[in-house]
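Re: beginner question about structure tokens

> Can someone show what the tokenized structure looks like for a real chain? I only ever see the sequence side.

Sure, here's an example I had lying around. Input first:
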Amino acid sequence: MRVCAVIVAGGRSSRMGREKALELLRGRTVIDWIITRLSVQTDAIVLNANGDAGRFARLGLSIINDLRGDIGTPLAGLHAALVFAKNNGFDAVLTAPSDAPFLPADLLQKLLASDREAAIAASAGQSHYLTGLWSPALLPAIEDAVQQSRTPRLQDWCRTCSAAIVEWTTMPYDPFFNINTPEELAEAERIAAVFNP
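And the corresponding structure tokens:
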């Protein structure tokens, strides 16, 4: 099975005030942490990002834009990811946000074990809808969704496609901890220093 990882950097980073993915965490950018986590689990990594692609040029990753820039929701990033996977012969897409540096080493393995067309990561009872495994067979369903006059939220669409919810422990830290503010970046530094995840 060929699996492509797509890192979704579609947010505006409004609470951080600057690009979250490029913030430094123990001397490396947050997105470098994510690439390290995903590169050993998947066959390829691409970045879903809009705007100036030059800000990510040093990563050397292929960049895919949202194909529906008019809807402005994470569903647009997932749609672009599934189109890319289908056009490039991948059997599945593993998506992750660009602000979660501590993704688990068994992310792909546990999501695959659900044996569903869609599987979502969860921790402490909270579903992380942008961290999931998706079959390109879902492309017709997501194309229907993005063409609706009122585009459904990602979590609502996940329910309509009966996505499995796969739970991880939050001990000793939440592997889906994401960085939205300077305070959360400081907490990520503490986690990385203590646990060296």
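Each token stands for a local structural state, so reading them left to right follows the chain. The mean pLDDT is 93.
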